[in-house]
Amino acid sequence: AQSVTQPDIHITVSEGASLELRCNYSYGATPYLFWYVQSPGQGLQLLLKYFSGDTLVQGIKGFEAEFKRSQSSFNLRKPSVHWSDAAEYFCAVDSGGGADGLTFGKGTHLIIQP
Amino acid sequence: DVKVTQSSRYLVKRTGEKVFLECVQDMDHENMFWYRQDPGLGLRLIYFSYDVKMKEKGDIPEGYSVSREKKERFSLILESASTNQTSMYLCASSRNHGYTFGSGTRLTVV
């Protein structure tokens, strides 16, 4: 069965600093990969997704992610964080069949220091 | 704007009650899903359906059942609610690996 690991439960970053959130997946073939963000009391918002092609994916709000097959990773990055980026971030994988749903990591809680 | 609508934003039920959580999508998606979200555990799949009257167990189906009588509607049923089912429940639909999530129902069982 597929699985997703987000090794960092909490990350604290100063405003204006760069950010990298880690995500590793376990799956036999190339999966479909997603990053979602959830602000307090809000629903899930899709930041970006990777299906195929260029391994560097651009998303909304200045985020990007890089798919590295050799490391089974799909890390999320942002060059300069803003206080409004404080939220819960979830990495997810779709096995490719499409009908089985997304498998999510447990999430990384991002705290922004002034 | 395409939507997944969950009928209740907040719900309080008593232990032992039968609880229905309703989800409707207007995108003609084949696939629908129910997740529960708990702090530190992320989102876990309860049940999913890839067609009308079809259902499949997800990772944590115990204590739940589902119904899909029409393509646009997917209901989650708690036959006898228990306090450990207090959680946020999220419905989603998909087609071709594109997912749309509802806003969630926060269920409290007292």
Provide a descriptive summary of the structure in words.
The complex is a heterodimer of chains A (114) and B (110). Chain A has 114 residues and is mainly beta. In chain A, 0% of the residues lie in helices and 52% in strands. The model of chain A has no long low-confidence stretch (mean pLDDT 93). Chain B has 110 residues and is mostly beta strands. Chain B has strands spanning 4-6, 10-13, 19-21, 23-25, 31-38, 42-49, 56-57, 64-70, 73-78, 87-95, 98-101, 105-109. Chain B is globular, with a radius of gyration of 13 Å. Chain B starts with a strand and ends with a strand. The interface between A and B is medium-sized, with 22 and 25 residues.
What is the straight-line distance between the termini of chain B?
36 Å
Oligomeric state, counting identical vs distinct chains: heterodimer
Secondary-structure-derived class of chain A:
mainly beta
Tell me the strand percentage band of chain A: over 45%
Mean pLDDT of chain A: 93
Low-confidence stretches of chain B: none
Helix and strand composition category of chain B: mainly beta
- What is the global morphology of chain B? globular
Order of helix and strand elements from N to C terminus of chain B: EEEEEEEEEEEE
Helix fraction of chain B by DSSP (H/I, runs of at least 4): under 10%
Chain-averaged pLDDT of chain B: 95
Topology at a glance:
The complex is a heterodimer of chains A (114) and B (110).
Chain A: E1 3-5, E2 10-14, E3 19-21, E4 24-26, E5 32-38, E6 44-50, E7 56-58, E8 64-68, E9 73-78, E10 87-94, E11 102-104, E12 108-113
Parallel strand pairs in A: 2-12
Antiparallel strand pairs in A: 1-4, 3-9, 5-6, 5-10, 7-8, 8-9, 10-11, 10-12
Chain B: E1 4-6, E2 10-13, E3 19-21, E4 23-25, E5 31-38, E6 42-49, E7 56-57, E8 64-70, E9 73-78, E10 87-95, E11 98-101, E12 105-109
Parallel strand pairs in B: 2-12
Antiparallel strand pairs in B: 1-4, 3-9, 5-6, 5-10, 6-7, 8-9, 10-11, 10-12
